[in-house]
Structure formats: C-alpha cells, structure tokens
Amino acid sequence: MSTKGKSPADSAVEQNVYKVFPNDLNSKYTVFGGLVMGLCDRTALIVAERHSGQSCVTAAVDSFVFLAPARAGDTLIVKAAVNRSWRSSMEIGVHVAAENSFNGDTRHVVSAYLTFVALDGAGKPTSVPTVSPQSEIESRRFEEAQQRRTARLESR
Ligand SMILES: CC(C)(COP(=O)(O)OP(=O)(O)OC[C@H]1O[C@@H](n2cnc3c(N)ncnc32)[C@H](O)[C@@H]1OP(=O)(O)O)[C@@H](O)C(=O)NCCC(=O)NCCS
For the segment 116-128, what is each residue's pLDDT rounded down to a tens digit? Predict the structure, then answer.
C-alpha cells in the first residue's frame, strides 16, 4: 500500500454527536464514564481506519482525562484527528465537549490520546501512511505525539 503522507484533515472526524438520555447516567446522575470512553474509542477508530485504509485495533490509551462531568440532556460532541503515525501505529487525539443545545453553552469534558495499530488481512501489523501536518497546531500535536511514544516505550 502507499505510504505517502496524508494530512490530519483527510481522516479527521469533525463532529460525532451523541444525545445523553437518562439511561446513560451513573449513580450521581452524571454521564457514565465508560460510555464516553466507548464513544471516544469508536470515533478514534474511524480516524485510524480512514488514515490507514485498514482494519485497526486499539493498542493503548496513553491518556484519558475527564475534565468536567456531562449531564442528562447534554449533547456530547466528539472530535478526533490523527496526530502522528509510525510504521503500523497511529496516535489519535480526541476532544469531547458537552453542549447544552438549548442555549449553546459548551464545556470541554474530555481529552484523550489513543494508539491504534493497522492490521493486514492476516491480522499482522501493517504499514500506514505518514502524517503531514498542515498547520502550527497540527505540527505541535505531531511533535508531542513523538514525546508520548518515546515516554511509553521507555516505561515498558
Ligand atoms: C496491538 C497489537 C496488534 C500489537 O501486536 P504486536 O505483536 O505487539 O506487534 P508489534 O510488536 O509488531 O508492534 C506493532 C505496533 O504496535 C505498537 N504497539 C504494540 N504494543 C503497544 C502498546 N502497548 N502501546 C502502544 N503501541 C503498541 C508497536 O509500537 C508497533 O508500532 P509501530 O509499527 O508503529 O512501530 C496486539 O498487541 C494486539 O492485537 N492487541 C490486542 C488489540 C485489541 O484487541 N484491542 C481491542 C481492545 S478491547
């Protein structure tokens, strides 16, 4: 397959929306964290599959921070983009906001970094396109992703 560089915009998910209903809540009546984690994993998977053109699996979650609770009635807005790729792995950054859709108030509730690995038809890790950052913010994410990978490999 081609290993030509692709920009993060080529595979980004701009807005995956999820309306919170009462059955999504924990015993404190805020949104169950596992639901948000699953939503992030699914959204990031789409980015990994768009970027690589292959089936991908979640290999690791480097960071998953709940910054604020989301509540009943909120609309969760998930954004995800590839920060960097290596041979077969890709780091996907995910941002979740909780929107009050009646008045437009929006709160940043989660930031996360997930690593996916692309698999070939035999289930073996396979090479993926490189990432070509196109903006200052994409370049910063590209550099920071390498720092996280280095730290992860050192801690193994
Ligand atoms: C992820 C997986 C495919 C890696 O397989 P592996 O035999 O370790 O493959 P390799 O050692 O050749 O590594 C392949 C890539 O995975 C990356 N990788 C492996 N383990 C990793 C980890 N814990 N964290 C981040 N990246 C990891 C390697 O860095 C390598 O990346 P690179 O090719 O870009 O350098 C394998 O561990 C697996 O199938 N895990 C289960 C995945 C899964 O079921 N996910 C769903 C969870 S519910």
Answer: 999 999 999 999 9
The domain containing residue 62 runs over which residues?
Answer: 8-155
Task: Decide if 1 is inside a domain.
Answer: no
Q: So what's the pLDDT on residue 3?
A: 47
Per the structure, the count of domains in the chain is 1
Q: What is the CATH number of the domain that holds 115?
A: 3.10.129.10
pLDDT on residue 4? 60
Q: How many CB atoms lie within 10 A of CB 133?
A: 17
Residue nearest to atom 35 of ligand 1 (CA): 87
How many angstroms does the Cα of residue 117 sit away from the middle of ligand 1? Answer: 6
**Cα–Cα nearest to 36, from 54, 48, 22, 18:** 18
**Ligand 1 contacts CB of residue 115 (under 6 A):** yes
Q: What's the gap in Å between 106 CA and the centre of ligand 1?
A: 35
Quote the strand ranges of 50-151, DSSP E.
55-66, 75-85, 89-99, 106-119
Q: Is residue 3 part of a domain?
A: no
Q: Please tell me whether the overall predicted TM-score, pTM, comes out greater than 0.85 for this model.
A: yes
CA 124 – ligand 1 centroid, Å: 10
Q: Which residue, judged by its Cα, is nearest atom 36 of ligand 1?
A: 59
